[in-house]
Fold this sequence. Notes:
It is built from five helices and 14 strands. The protein is α/β, with parallel strands linked by helices and about 270 residues long.
Amino acid sequence: MWHKFILTICLAVLAGGVLPSCKDDVPVRPEPVPTVELSDSLVLLEFHRAMLGEKWEVQWDLKNPDTWKNIAWTTDEETGLRKVAGLEITASNCPPGSCLPESLGQLDRLESLVVHDEDQLTGRIPESLYDCPLVRLRIVGTSLYGELSPRIARLAPTLRELSIDWNREIAGEIPPELGQCTRLEQLSLVRNGFTGKLPFELSNLGIPFNVSYNYLTAIDWRYFTEYDGPLPWLYQNEFQGTVPEEVVRCERWELWKNVFYLFREGFGFENY
Length: 272
């Protein structure tokens, strides 16, 4: 029933018109010309449902795409129809209990997803998002949970900014596959629940990045012995054990050892 309703809305009233009348004495208006590509319309209506759109501060008129706020559009050159290029989620359009639908991965022009919602968004990061041509993926201050998927590597051709910050339930190990996203210009993974060892593959990025305020316990020491680029900021993690002697003796250790300081209380290298 829901899908029939969606199809009716998209096909008959997407441009803001009205449904034809069945009464003989009322003129039948011509069917409006759609302004949004059908598949994107279906995804956005599912997005509206999953994000509890009836509770948003600024309501969408589902018959009029011009009222669909927090969307950036692009125009398909062949069809002349609008397609979704960007989505922004804030506290105003993210009531408690909202979640991201898996269908977002069908937005084949989606370049930017920005989420900043003050802990009201729940669920997992949809795996399908990694099928979009994302240039910017920014998720800040949510209650999303789970791990950062190894499928992040699928974004290697396009991704320029990845900011996953202040999400205490996004945890697990940082996937080495992230190191394949060599077009990244900005990487921030601050104040999440990341654990384990910082993978050396991230050195392929060749940029400074921040992984502070997590729960990392180890680093691949090749960051000091085999890599000559900038090191990430790593303070307020749970590093422990002993720094290898070959690292302590190398010049880079003296230059970069402060990237670890301060440690979380009760942690730290024995010979730091």
